[in-house]
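Q: What does the predicted 3D structure of Rrf2 family transcriptional regulator look like?
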Amino acid sequence: MQISARGDYAVRAALSLATAYPALLSTQAIAAEQDMPRKFLEAVLADLRRAGIVRAQRGAEGGYTLARPPRDITIGQILRAVDGPLAGVRGLRPEETHYAGAAENLPRLWVAVRAAVRQVVDEVSLAEMASGKLPGHVRKLIARPDAWEPR
């Protein structure tokens, strides 16, 4: 799975908002804290606002806040809001792929890959991520000896 810059920035911005929740943060404050380009951050926050993940308040005391408590927003929801479906195969959803011959069973593998990604990103909330208290099944994955080794 490849996490885009947009996805990375969205999750980082949401984590900043989670730690400040329910207070408002300006784009400038988030950009400074997370070392992000402000214009790009504004576009990412607009995607999150359209998805109902954040809400904006205009004015001198304005800024952004999460639309729901951090425990009710998953990392997967954020990634989908800015990048669309979690797993795609040539622009198709895994269940939409069809192959003949030796590759006929490949769609099953693509669906399994998507399910594995969902088991992590859809089961970790902003609150868990911000606190570092990840679910047990995610901690087990991180603790595997090969988890941190590049392949």
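A (community wiki): The structure tokens above were generated from the sequence. The radius of gyration is 18 Å. DSSP finds seven helices and two strands in the chain.
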